[in-house]
Amino acid sequence: MTAVRLADDSTACSYCSLPVYGTVQPGEPAYCCFGCRFAAEVTGATGDSGEARWLAASLGLSVFCTMNVVMLTMALWSYAAVPRSPFEAGLADFLRYGALLFTAPVLLLLGRPLATNAFAQLRRGLLSTDLLLLTGVAAAYVVSVASTVRSGGHVYYEVACVILVLVTLGRWLEATGRLQASVALDDLERLLPDQVRVVNGAGCVELIPRTAAIVGQSVRVLAGERIPFDGRVQRGRGVVDEQFFTGESAPVERQPGDAVLGGSLNLEGDLLLEVTAQDSAGALSRLVDAVRSARLKKGHYQLLADCCSQWFFPVIAAASLATFGVHTWRSDWETGLLTALSVVLIACPCALALATPLAVWAALSAAARRGVLIRSGEALERLAGIRTLCWDKTGTLTTGSPCIRMMLCEEVAERDAVESLAAALASGSTHVYSAAIGRFLEGTTHPTLPVDVATISGRGLRAEWPGLGTVTLGSPRFLAECGLSVGPVLQVALARSDVADAACVLVGWQGKVRGAFVVDEEPRPEVDAVIDSCRTLQIDLAVLTGDR
């Protein structure tokens, strides 16, 4: 996988797609950090599947070897505290060489990608913390090998191994967190169909790739399909679900002259659209691009960490050299070397450069797995200090799927007839309101659905029943157009404050509206627990909605 050039002249990371600044070798993969380099190798993006499986096992093998190194060096520490016999001295040498043997695989498996990344950043003129890590690990290993060969002195094999394992784990988690956040955005782009039906001047329909369509062409979209482009309805009527963009669970009716958004779902009707914006300029692409751009913005703590990291290696190197000089002058060069090594090793875990981005990206990926796209790391940081929380209702406090809150009847004696006929008509439609009525009346016995059911897209259903004539189910406007009047009981009920602003589906026959279904949104089951948690944190709550 080769690197991709971005609009701002930076290069996209071959693993997580974040920018990589500096000089990159053309035709070669580029990685923004050591974690991405290691994760890309582990996931086996390229190469033989057997090699990919081995790379996936390398981290586990390194952990196993590190545990053995720690066990052997702990035994060496106990020997350093007591006088040793010749047998004990030989056993200490055995432990040293055993630790050396187990350390070698860790250096080969985890040290190689770290060294590759450190030198790649050095070629780009960056003194990264990876270089500091590599220096510390190399120094610990060299001093330990010298002590092993001399059969005396301290060994630091466990330090080198533990640093490599912990840093690799942290960077890998950080890299996979970034990848999961990117995958959530990629899933949005996959909503659009790969191929579209283009209608030419002769009226013939041709199936072509979506990317080949141009502005001004006519595209046909059938019921149940995603609208591929931003466009304008030329012919036909349809019911479109735009909840993804507007947050409103109620589908909207679209007719000739109305604009539609690419990525919305055509629930009913056969639409002929004129393409007004190509794929890259559509509403969905602009939304994804906006989220991607915001995702690259770093928060206050990340910027602070980056600023400090640029000076971290020179400062630690200077401190280590100063420590070596002072202790060599006051004692001897071996003491100075060990003390300077301690300075480098203590700085190696580097929570400044590891913990800050790891925490941010772990939170972003966890939110993405739950369907929440956080705008940026800065937004996540500022979230911790909020005192007021304003909720969006649809899709946040509610599931986004409509449900029937109540059923009203003009006459109590007609309740069974209203239920059975409404259930029968609703069962013949895929509209979200019909599905809600079907769930509400589940278990209701209804007559067999007539063959001659007329579906008026976005408005309602009509069917002929023996003895009743035409039975109509649909919106209040549709039933009024069909000449059905609302009786006094339903007029009063529908004018109540708790019903007046709600969507309603009416059913009627023989010139009168016989019943009404009040549509509402189903609250999420976890809402009460979340609200209680917010109140425990003393956060003021509000709801942003057009409802009264």
From TrEMBL:
Query: Which positions fall inside the P-type ATPase A domain?
Result: 191-291
Name the Gene Ontology biological process terms.
copper ion homeostasis
Q: What is its main location?
A: membrane
Compartment(s): Endomembrane system
The UniProt entry lists membrane topology as:
Multi-pass membrane protein
UniProt superkingdom: Bacteria
**Which residue ranges traverse the bilayer?**
59-82, 94-111, 131-149, 155-173, 303-326, 338-364
Q: Which GO terms describe its molecular function?
A: ATP binding; ATP hydrolysis activity; copper ion binding; P-type divalent copper transporter activity
Question: What's in the GO CC field?
Answer: endomembrane system; membrane
Keywords, alphabetical: Membrane, Metal-binding, Translocase, Transmembrane, Transmembrane helix
What the entry lists under InterPro entries is as follows: ATPase_P-typ_cyto_dom_N, ATPase_P-typ_P_site, ATPase_P-typ_TM_dom_sf, ATPase_P-typ_transduc_dom_A_sf, ATPase_P-type_domA, HAD-like_sf, HAD_sf, P_typ_ATPase
What family classification does the UniProt entry report for this protein?
Answer: Belongs to the cation transport ATPase (P-type) (TC 3.A.3) family. Type IB subfamily.
The protein, known as: Cation-translocating P-type ATPase
- Give the species: Schlesneria paludicola
